[in-house]
């Protein structure tokens, strides 16, 4: 049975263009369109689509409000079309918080310079969101956090968490942990927010974060996380000194690795090899962690499409590092963690809500 798609945008030209592109794939069927958020809600009730493509700025009701209401009324996978600007990044992150699963550039030339390839990529993303293993954000986690004012971290105290979580943390630190690296993709912005807001400001290890995201989005995402978290979060820059209690987000469109410089570890940010699919790539970052930290790191692979991270975790595992994966039930898309687990590389599977508290136990 074809995937039923509802297209929501205030531009008639854009609605027709998306309809034409999706008709390229026999798996997809456009069952309706809407020109604003209120019409979208009415159409969701009437048509019960499998996937919705949603614009952000529309009259009557904007896409973020509509997404929130649809998630309350009839949860449906939603993919946002966004402009690749700073304001577009902030709005898209708001839409993901509201329950959207994924996003794509509104300028299809930003997806691919090849028109046929852009069609294929759009169709593939929409088709995958209809998969039964894909879950709307509100079914996996509810993030309700307020910006905090950072102060000097208090003395380290172990949080009072469940014994199984403490046991997982103990197993991860028994060989002398020095680094935590996290890789994620679809569903990742909300998942990372859920995890990182549970980590105390005096966290004794640095964190490397790799989220598949455009270059124009990562500064806004890092800023958002920094405002919500007790730890310091920043978009990584070439030459950054890796320090405990700091999280470094890989810049979109580039690759981030770590390397040793004397007694220090520094971050190197460089242009990506054009043959690599993911920019940034979890595999690239994890492989560098394996070289520098050997068996003294913990890698976590969370929600996302595809298999990025599998080969990086393989390199880490060969050095003796620990690997955690997010479990299927709490993933928006159980792709990347499944690839790691199916390869026999995962030491522990954890529900999303348990990852942050388990990290907070690490010493």
Your description of this structure?
The chain is built from 12 helices and 14 strands. With 363 residues, the chain is α/β, with parallel strands linked by helices. It has 2 domains: 137 residues, Response regulator (Rossmann fold, 3-Layer(aba) Sandwich), CATH 3.40.50.2300; 198 residues, Methylesterase CheB, C-terminal domain (Rossmann fold, 3-Layer(aba) Sandwich). The protein has a 7-stranded parallel sheet with strand order 8-9-7-6-12-13-14, sandwiched between helices. A 5-stranded parallel sheet has the order 2-1-3-4-5, with helices on both faces. A two-stranded antiparallel sheet has the order 10-11. Helix 9 runs parallel beside helix 10 and helix 10 packs across helix 11. The longest helix is centred in the middle third of the chain and has 15 residues. The protein is elongated. About 2% of the residues have low confidence.
Largest sheet report: 7 strands, parallel
CATH architecture of the largest domain: 3-Layer(aba) Sandwich
Let me know the number of strands. Answer: 14
Multimer state: single chain
| Strand order, sheet with most strands | 8-9-7-6-12-13-14
CATH domain fold name of the largest domain: Rossmann fold
Strand content: 15-25%
- Kindly provide the name of the CATH class of the largest domain: Alpha Beta
Dominant shape: elongated
Q: Mean pLDDT, nearest integer?
A: 90
> For the CA atoms, what is the radius of gyration?
20 Å
Helix count equals 12
Give the full name of the CATH homologous superfamily of the largest domain. Methylesterase CheB, C-terminal domain
Report the helical percentage.
Answer: 25-40%
